Amino acid sequence: MAVLVGKKAPSFMAKAVINGGEIVENFSLDQYIGKKYVVFFFYPKDFTFVCPTEIIAFQDKIAEFESRNVAVVACSTDSEFSHWKWLQTEKKEGGIKGVKFPLVADGAMTIADAYDVLAGEYDYNEEGAMIFNGEPAAYRGLFLIDKNGIVRHQVVNDMPLGRSVDEALRMVDALQFFEENGEVCPANWHKGSEGLKATQEGISEYLGKN
C-alpha cells in the first residue's frame, strides 16, 4: 500500500455526477488547489450495503465540512450512469437521493490504482491473455488533501468496515489547528482542546496539565 502522505495528490480528469444529478465530463480535484481542502474518499460499489450509510453520513455532516472550507468528493469504479441512477433512487429503496457532493466515475480503475486502493490488479495468464486478479473495486480509502494539493492524512479500510465521518472532521480540525497555531495535536485531540509546542518543554508542560 502506497503512503501518499506528504506527496502531491495524484491528478486525474474523469466523468462525475455533481449536485445530485448533473453529469460533467472533466471533473478534477485540481479545481480546489489554492481554494479549498478536500476530503476525497473511495467506496467499493453503488447499490450495496455499507456504502450508502457512509455517503449519507457524509451528506448529513456536509455543512460542517463546508464551514471548514472543505470539499467532499467520493469515487468508485462504477459508471457515471450508475452514480446518476443511485442518486435518483430513494433511500428507502437503497438509494442515496439527496446527496449533493460529487461522485467520480472510475470505470477504468485508473484513479483507484493511482491512489493504491484498488482491490486487485491486471495480469496475464499462461496463454498471454490479460486477466484481472482480485476485486475490480476500491477499498474504503480516504485522503485529506490540503489547499496546496498535498495529502496530509490517509486511512484505508477493508470493504466490510465502514468509516467514521466524525474522525474525518477531527482530522480536518487538527490540520487547520496546526496551520493556524503552529502547535501539534496530541492523542485524542479535538477542536477546542489545547495543542502543544513541538519541544521537550512544550511536551512536559502539556503532560503536566493532563
Report Rg. 19 Å
> Element order, helices and strands?
EEEHHEHEHEEEEHH
CATH topology tier name of the largest domain: Glutaredoxin
User: How many separate structural domains?
Assistant: 2
Give the number of helices. 6
CATH architecture of the largest domain: 3-Layer(aba) Sandwich
Note the beta-strand portion: 25-35%
So what's the overall shape? globular
Question: In what order do the strands lie side by side in the largest sheet?
Answer: 2-1-5-4-3-8-9
Average of the residue pLDDT scores: 94
Query: Distance N terminus to C terminus?
Result: 36 Å
Number of strands: 9
By CATH reckoning, the class of the largest domain would read: Alpha Beta
Kindly name the structural category: alpha+beta
Could you give me the name of the CATH homologous superfamily of the largest domain? Answer: Glutaredoxin
Question: How helical, in percent, are the residues?
Answer: 25-40%
- Detail the poorly predicted runs: none
Assembly state: single chain
- Biggest sheet features: 7 strands, mixed
InterPro entries: AhpC/TSA, Peroxiredoxin, Peroxiredoxin_AhpC-typ, Peroxiredoxin_C, Thioredoxin-like_sf, Thioredoxin_domain
Keywords: Cytoplasm, Disulfide bond, Oxidoreductase, Peroxidase, Redox-active center
Main location: cytoplasm
Family: Belongs to the peroxiredoxin family. AhpC/Prx1 subfamily.
